[in-house]
Amino acid sequence: MRKPETIERMYLDFDGFFASVEQQADRRLRGRPVGVVPFDGTDRTCVIACSREAKAFGVKNVMPVAEARQLCPDIVLVPQKPDLYRRAHNALLSEIQSVIPIDAVKSIDELTCRLDGEGRRDPQHLAARLKTTLANNVGTVITSSVGFAANRQLAKMACKEGKRSGATYGNGVMIWRPEDLPAPLLGLKLSDIPGVGENMERRLIRSGIYTTADLYRLEPKHMRKLWNNVTGERLWYALHGYDVQAPLSSRGMFGHGRVLPPESRSLAGAFEICRLLLTKAARRLRREDYYCSGLWLWLAVRDRNWSAKMKLPIVHDDQAVLAALDELWKRVRATYPRGVTVFRVGVTLYDLSRAGERQLDFLLNDDRVRQKWERVSNAVDGLNARYGKTVTSLGMWKPPAGGHVGGKISYTRIPTAEDFW
């Protein structure tokens, strides 16, 4: 495995992305504490993203609105606009590409680039060019923090430290050259290391590893044992400056989840939103040329979660998945015959296979029916694509207040324009 002798990677993270996009789009919000919320006109929810001005008062992401108001009485709450964030993401990436090729988009507000010779020699100049280009062509309100290091993992950690550096939140630059390490690492908390979540940190502490310095001194095989897989060993090599390439991931499922608005928290309201979410998931399944053979439904109700799975023939049409949802919903009603308050729902299509690899079930003679419903679904998709919105669907199409069914705010998946139809 190769160990670079100089910095080779840049990691860029936009600061308070959703809130700063709101401020860039609406100058009345600039300089004010802003909290992005799922729905308009209700305090029965949480702040899902906040601006640097709000963070200065102690407001954090995923904080109940009532608590945020206590910390910051002047906070301005704005309902989420996922399509605005998608368009801002695309505009920002376009400007970055004009300065340096993007190696990988890690999330809607994070990306990584490989450095050329000039970028390795003068990373400060590269960071300044990027920030100037974004400020001139997109706006000055959306700022970013940038980290440079020998590999992607270290660059991400440097970026996070750059975000904390200076007198103001974000918009920093941090360079970790190989000759500077491991000193910058040793002052970090275990939780500052990507891949060390709460559960992993507890496991490390139980094993007598309390600091990043303790972790750094371990051997690769010991790290592998602690993680119970090769991930731990890869992390050891990444922390020690090796060029570790993450294995290619494959698509495992298509799904959508949603916090329900107050008026949709009955079983009837939750079912209607589940139908819309599942239809959106099936559309994505078809657009990416997959079939599925399983449906998973889950609900967050008071004091607990409910979930169930159902096997399917290898399908991707709306009729098949919606019929399966009907069957699963009978189980929901049997579990809660008197009804229940549902706060969040999710649907997932899993056990995927590529269209060219589909194998029919010899014991289930339904190919003629499946082909008919696939033609119906393809015709529906064609009409919706022609008009750029949902003009026809299998069953009623009545999005809830606030919309954003299947196109919700997301850090890990970047919605496409079709997600908002």
Automatic annotation (TrEMBL):
SUPFAM superfamilies: DNA/RNA polymerases (SSF56672). InterPro entries: DNA/RNA_pol_sf, DNA_pol_Y-fam_little_finger, DNA_polymerase-Y, IMS_HHH_1, Rev_trsase/Diguanyl_cyclase, UmuC. Its EC number is 2.7.7.7. It catalyses: DNA(n) + a 2'-deoxyribonucleoside 5'-triphosphate = DNA(n+1) + diphosphate. Residues 9-197 form the UmuC domain. Keywords: Nucleotidyltransferase, Transferase. Its cofactor is Mg(2+). Pfam families: IMS (PF00817), IMS_C (PF11799), IMS_HHH_1 (PF21999). Poorly processive, error-prone DNA polymerase involved in untargeted mutagenesis. Copies undamaged DNA at stalled replication forks, which arise in vivo from mismatched or misaligned primer ends. These misaligned primers can be extended by PolIV. Exhibits no 3'-5' exonuclease (proofreading) activity. May be involved in translesional synthesis, in conjunction with the beta clamp from PolIII. Monomer. Belongs to the DNA polymerase type-Y family. This is DNA-directed DNA polymerase. It comes from Aminobacter niigataensis.
